[in-house]
């Protein structure tokens, strides 16, 4: 899942909000394990083609989190997403 930071929102606040918005899960239903210590940043290469609405967009900083959820997949709101689930013993 992916989301953005709202104004004055920390990454810790954003992950809780995004999990609720994207999966319909409340914080008591999962455990936040860890955040990657530094964001992963990327930039788009210069485009020489036709003008595009994203011409001024250069990239993003991605903040990665590990979340542990032991509940049932059907308890998550997934919309039209195609999801595969792997259980480790």
Description:
With 89 residues, this protein is an alpha+beta fold. It has one domain: Nucleoside Triphosphate Pyrophosphohydrolase (Alpha-Beta Complex). The chain has one helix and four strands; from the N terminus they run H-E-E-E-E. Strands 1-4 form a two-stranded antiparallel sheet.
Q: What is the compact description of this entry?
A:
It is built from 1 helix and 4 strands; from the N terminus they run αββββ. The protein has one helix at residues 11-23; strands spanning 31-35, 40-43, 59-62, 65-68.
List keywords for this structure.
15% helix, elongated, 89 residues, Nucleoside Triphosphate Pyrophosphohydrolase, 19% strand, alpha+beta, two-stranded antiparallel sheet, two-stranded antiparallel ribbon
Shape label: elongated
Please provide the ordered H/E string of secondary-structure elements: HEEEE
| Structural class computed from helices and strand pairing | alpha+beta
What profile does the largest beta sheet have? 2 strands, antiparallel
Shape-level CATH architecture? Alpha-Beta Complex
Number of helices: 1
What oligomeric state best describes the polypeptide chains here? single chain
How many angstroms separate the termini? 24 Å
Strand order of the largest sheet: 1-4
- What percent strand? 15-25%
Instruction: State the CATH topology.
Output: Nucleoside Triphosphate Pyrophosphohydrolase
CATH superfamily: Nucleoside Triphosphate Pyrophosphohydrolase
CATH class: Alpha Beta
Unreliable stretches: none
- As a whole number of angstroms, the C-alpha radius of gyration is 17 Å
- Compute the number of structural domains: 1
- Counted beta strands: 4
Average pLDDT metric:
79
Range of helix content? 10-25%
């Amino acid at each position: 899942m992916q989301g953005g930071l709202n104004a004055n929102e920390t990454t810790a606040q954003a992950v809780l909000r995004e999990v609720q918005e994207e999966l319909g899960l409340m914080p008591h239903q999962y455990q936040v394990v860890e955040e990657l210590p530094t964001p992963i940043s990327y930039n788009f290469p210069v485009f020489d083609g036709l003008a595009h609405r994203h011409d001024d967009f250069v990239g993003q900083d991605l903040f990665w989190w590990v979340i542990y959820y032991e509940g049932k997949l059907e308890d998550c709101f997934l919309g039209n997403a195609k999801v595969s689930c792997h259980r480790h013993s």
